[in-house]
Amino acid sequence: MKKEKFHIEYPLKSASIAVLWNSISTPLGLAEWFAESVTVEDDMYTFSWDDIDETAYLMKVKPNDYTRFQWKDDKDTVAFFELRIVVQELGGEVALVITDFAEKNEIEDAILIWDKQVGDLRRKYGI
Predict the structure, then answer these.
(1) Does CATH number 3.30.530 belong to domain 3-24+58-125?
(2) What are the tens digits of pLDDT across the range 10-41?
(3) Quick one: which of 15, 19, 37, 104 is 20 to 30 A from 118 by CA?
(4) Cα 68 off chain centre by
(5) Which helix or strand (DSSP H or E) is residue 113 part of?
(6) pTM reported for the whole predicted model
């Protein structure tokens, strides 16, 4: 079944761009909210949750803007997940915009997982 792209925007009004960038671009930062542990070898990131390890390629990165990963075992070669920092022109409010792919019947579950993970990010950094 073909995966569909979806976007979720999480307002993080009081977030520091430097702190947010660190949390979406470094293994230590990602391990604070996205996974229990993160290891990196070249452009391969291994994310660990409980007894599950998933590996993703770092596809693209633009400092202080976004990181984009593709799961190694994903058979949909177009699919990726991206973590992007957006600063609103009016008011300068910061948001984290997540782009991801899921099968149509799994999008709601994927959004719930992102909600939980971003909730962990907010609690960790008080944003």
Answers:
(1) yes
(2) 999 878 899 999 999 999 999 999 999 999 99
(3) 104
(4) 8
(5) helix 107-125
(6) 0.92
